[in-house]
Amino acid sequence: MARAGFWSIGGYEISFRKDGRWYADEEPIENARIALLFSRHIRAGEDGGWVVDVGVDRQPVTVEDTALVVVAADGDRRRGFRIKTNDGIEEWLDPTTLRIGRDNVLYCDVDRGERGVITARFLRPAYYALAAEVEQDADGPVLACRGSRYPIRSDAS
Length: 157
Known about the structure:
The protein is mainly β. The chain has 2 domains: 14-63, duf1285 like domain (duf1285 like fold), CATH 3.10.540; 68-151. 11% of the residues lie in helices and 45% in strands. The protein has helices at 32-41, 124-131, and strands at residues 14-16, 22-24, 27-28, 42-44, 50-54, 57-63, 68-76, 80-85, 90-92, 99-100, 106-111, 117-122, 134-137, 140-145, 148-151, 153-154. The strands form 3 sheets. The chain has a 7-stranded mixed β-sheet with strand order 9-8-7-12-11-10-16, with helices on one face. It has a 6-stranded mixed β-sheet with strand order 3-2-1-6-5-4. The chain is elongated, with a radius of gyration of 17 Å. The chain starts with 13 loop residues before the first strand and ends with a strand.
């Protein structure tokens, strides 16, 4: 069985799961640098799936929910809210992309340039940090931010 430390990318079933962790076969990848490398190089594949593309090495990836996760959120209504995703990027949240999915999971979109716009799932700590700022009005949940109010749509089916 692989030790999920450092290896060539091929030869294992690589997956990214909704818990925000990478796996090689069924073993969590404990090496934070490898996980960060994969997170920085995941992109939509030509077949509609996902691949980790590190130059000459490309590997199909099974993505359980989203290819990125929001690991932290902070800020306030006046300045806006910053998020950090598992690919190490910190940025201002675009509140127009917030939505609630099944089981009240919060999602947003993040722009990754040549990798495209990727949906990111909020992990619990980030969810709770942002949810504390969400208000309920007659039409549903709303995030007040930088002088505007942004409805949070529901994608739950």
